[in-house]
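Why do we care about 3D structure at all? Because function follows from shape, and shape follows, mostly, from sequence. That is the central idea of this module. The next example makes it concrete: a single protein chain, its amino acid sequence, and then its structure expressed as tokens.
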Amino acid sequence: MHPEIRQDHPGTCPKCGMTLEPVMPTLEEDDNPELRDFQRRFWWTLPLTVVVTLLAMAGHTLALFSAATQTWVEFALSLPIVLWAGWPFFVRGWQSVVNRSPNMWTLISLGTGSAFVYSVLATVAPQSFPDTFVSMGRVGVYFEAAAVIISLTLLGQVLELKARSQTSAAIKSLLGLAPKTARRIRSDGTEEDVPLAHVHVGDLLRIRPGEKVPVDGTVTEGSSAVDESMLTGEPLPVTKRAGDKVIGATMNTSGALVMRSERVGSATMLAQIVQMVAQAQRSRAPMQRLADVVAGYFVLVVVAIAVLTLLAWGLWGPEPRWVYGMINAVAVLIIACPCALGLATPMSIMVATGRGATHGVLFRDAAAIEKFCQIDTLIIDKTGTLTEGRPAFERTIAAPGFTDDEVLRLAASLDQGSEHPLAAAIVQAARTRGLALDTPEQFESSSGIGVRGAVGRRSLVLGNTALMQQAGVAVEVLTAQAESLRTEGASVMYLAVDGQLAGLLAVSDPIKPSTPEALATLKAAGLRIVMATGDGLTTARAVGTRLGIDEVHGEVKPADKLALVDRLQREGRVVAMAGDGINDAPALAQADVGVAMGTGTDVAMNSAQVTLIKGDLRGIAVARLLSVDTVRNMKQNLMFAFLYNALGIPVAAGLLYPFTGWLLSPMVAALAMSLSSASVIGNALRLSRR
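And the structure:
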């Protein structure tokens, strides 16, 4: 419940008293020691609780003992229940006092302790009580109330711990995806099966049909269809050939592959996904702040109500007045336990983050889940977000005094130092044509608009119109050809050599097949779609027209994207930014919710609150729907917790007695308290079946 509480061993939270969750679940931890301990305490003392209850209800009818003897028998039977089975509750109640953090255990220990201590006094010194306390030949005792409350609370804790373990099912299922071994190819060509922990970066691994990819890497030989659905949510297998990236834990379905490992251990995508899900599950939703504020005063208010109940019944109630007062006060303490309030949002967050991970949507924290459903404006980068991000080189147009091959060779030589997808397409095209590339002597990235550098003692500038204007290079001679290419949706880059325009290069980036469907879904949900790209305005508008995006911003720098997000936020919009590049990082960090493509750069993913593993915009629609469901679920849980206490406390205090004659037994209150926690967890688990 309190993510800031951390320790290196199992135990309870000093603030709320609930069991601490492991920072990172493991597949081997199915045997929960606290669950096992509570089960043992519950089952060993349940027969005693049943006997004590039967004696209290029918002992005088059966006349097995005298009234005084029956009291001592009930005391002897209830002693191990209270002092052994209920000992963890009293320890937690005392810790809540020491830590000055009143919680549910404060109320349970006060309630059961009061009933038990009163009954012990009535057993040991019955002569100290007024005659009005005597009923059926003895001073009334309530050993059965203390025993039943402890047994029901133990049962509630067993049910809660079992249900809470299901909220980690998503992480455990992700951990279970990784294979245990890998088939490594030795330098002499022989092969061996080794544990996954013994695989190192650079190892050659063979993946046979039906086997899982052991780690992240690149295919070096073979061709096969790989099922990535367990990580990306994409149902169709993806064909992998030499040069393609493969993700650890995905399933090789048909052909044999040889891969070179690149990321192992905690660096693999699967390990990072597990880390992100665990981190999100430990985070605190803003909605929980209301529950925290209420819970901070709630226990003190309940204790005050219990004291008032005792006094009101003792002074003005029917005989035996103080007995009625004590029993109703205990019922108030028990039924008002704020466990349901404490579980309301954390359980929903744990289930939702796990559910999102199985659909390729990773939330960094609970705040992102809660905020996503409020988004009304989505800013989208073009390259790698709306488009494939794997551009294909189209053509070169040289300016007078230069040749096409020379322009391509110089641009490719400079672009060897760039990580941008457009640069990769240019370098690949030059190598395909067999052009000899030089190593750049200088390289500087003007992020979002192009690059500068020196090749063979010649100063080069490669980028869009904005960069050419900065460099003072006139581009009018090729403006008409550039505009013609842009209207076809191609991205155009100018190359200047020693301050003179050398030519232009056109690269096209196909739109992802899933993009039109994703945008249609988001528009139908009422989102305002805005495209912001570093490409030329004409190219951006051509892509925007094809996708039905009316608001398009072209040739924007990283600072311009940041300013666009800021302007929309000042207009009162709740903004999400979706991108995949380094140039998107500032805007991703500024947006109310940043959405990074899992196929993009690490900088973008580190700046965003949500990552789409597949890089598919349909994941935004999934994330938004999950956010809506989760927030609704949290509100349901909080409403139930508040409503439960609002109705339960007055009934337990006996306010209905003058009108209906109804009183709430502390035992019924204990059962209701346990069921309230179970119902909140059960409601949260519904998210896993959505």
